[in-house]
Amino acid sequence: MADSKEYLTIALPKGKLFAPSAELLCKVGYTAEGLSDKSRKLIISNEKKKIRFIVSKTADVPTYVEYGAADLGVIGKDVISESGKDVYELLDLGFGKCHLMMAVPKNQKRGRLMDYNHTRVATKFPHIAEDFFNKQGMQMEYIKLNGSIELGPIVGLSESIVDIVETGTTLKENNLEEIAYIFDTTARLIANRVSFKLKFEQIHQIVTDLKRLQAEGEE
Amino acid sequence: MDNEMQVLEIPYGMRDFLPIEAAEKRTIEEKLASLYMAWGYDEVVTPTIEYLDNLVQGSRHSIETHLFKLFDRKNNTLALRHEMTTPIARLSASRLQDSPLPLKLSYSSNVFRYEEMQAGRQCEFHQSGVELMGTTAAGADAEIIALAAKGIVDSGITTFTICLGQVDFATGLMEQFQLSSGEQRALQIALEQHDFVQFESRINLLSLTGSAKETLRQIPLLCGGEDVLEKAYTLAISEKSKRALDNLRAIYRLLKAYKADQYVRFDLGIIRDFSYYTGMVFEIYTDGLGFPLAGGGRYDHLLSDFGNPCPATGFAIGIERILLAITRQHLARPETPKDVYVGFANGAEEAAIVKAGRLRMEGKVTELAPASSTREEAESLRKKKGYTDLVYLA
Lengths: 219, 394
Known about the structure:
By secondary structure, chain A is an alpha/beta fold. Chain A has helices at residues 18-27, 61-66, 77-83, 126-135, 151-154, 169-173, 193-198, 200-218; strands spanning 8-13, 43-46, 51-56, 72-76, 88-92, 98-105, 120-123, 141-144, 160-165, 176-185, 187-191.
């Protein structure tokens, strides 16, 4: 931690968001040799520019940033909301666009959302789901799964699912139908609350450069 | 959980302080207590348990879900205090209302919040701080900031930054564009949650000119040295925003006299709870710790919630966070000396008791052996226990 003052540490998630995040940061001058989510190294640094990258499991990015182990991070809005961590959300990076929704088996669809009150819902996002159903005045039984959420209703584990959807293909393949939209999510640039203050100039410069890139992209 | 397990475990969010940790904690708390005393603050102690309704006064936010609650015999809802400002406001508005103003009070207490554990914060944690009541003068705010800075220095932390803001600046900017209270609240929530993406999209929804929107967008970005104040003046049209900046300028001028200006950075985007703070606000940060060490500000409405309007300002320092920062930054840890170990041969116990008593009178930290032993055994225990000298009575 002694050298944390000199280095800027960025946490990137393994998987889908990794490549576009690394590419975007590279365009504003933040990269390191051998930066890849397939790398066995957990920390990849660029000694010359005093940048360090941590490549971590998706759900851990907000934790690294909240505790200040990383100054910045790139992560989906869904993961931030689910984690409930106190981090600065600086910029919508635009990629990784998906939405959270509730889906049910097509052939057992009920008339209204309320008809699902007091049923079981399988999800990777129990906090988001609970928040959503509470707002509808519904009480549900939440079953936390870590992957292949679609399997829940098929094997009779739950009556519905709350999950993230990009194109809807997986839903179709599993005979599921979306019945309630929850919110849109995209990748966000997040910062630790102390780093954002103590390294304000540097972080603000990155945000400004990224915004300029986005504006150029739109033209 | 079976009973056998429970005997050894402690509840979620609670911790034990082992001897070295407890000694470090006490050393820092004592340093802070004597500092507050030297600045003319009187210590108060308030009850650990209060009526729930008292503790949630003034905080519009759902702090209630984070309180440890219980019932008394008459079924009133009680709660463990989650901070010290509200109990001290209650005390000042009632028992101390006839005391001469300004009232200067200090505390060092444990507080309780039921929330996910953070670095240097369990569900029970320790805060040390002061409250200065009865004056709106910039001098009072400057004194609070300077005292907090001195407290951090005395605790042994050498490098830190104080970020100083003023909540009226942001509210003034929002008012100068005649935002509805709903719109204003939505922007404030986005700022309080540190969600700039939400903040930006809320601004985009407003029916304002491009330049007005750009002005609002600047709020969280006004961070830096004195030049930030100048920049902020160019954005402030409303009297409220200008007064907020004048106030910061006045505080800063006095902080120079305290020689505390070297630690200060302006940050007009520091948003601590809007419903609670009414003037200057600040947070103190240090490297290697992702959370603030201390925070405070002016809260002029809280005492009127207790039926006795009185302006007030104050701060709280997180003791566990100070300890964590000292460890992380490899700074000198507060030491407790162990001076003399007194051993004795068979038959010399009375003499040893007298000797130990005399050494303690001289101010030496002295441990008396529990039973007679040989000189070699006493010497080996002295080493194990970390005492500097051995006194052996034959």
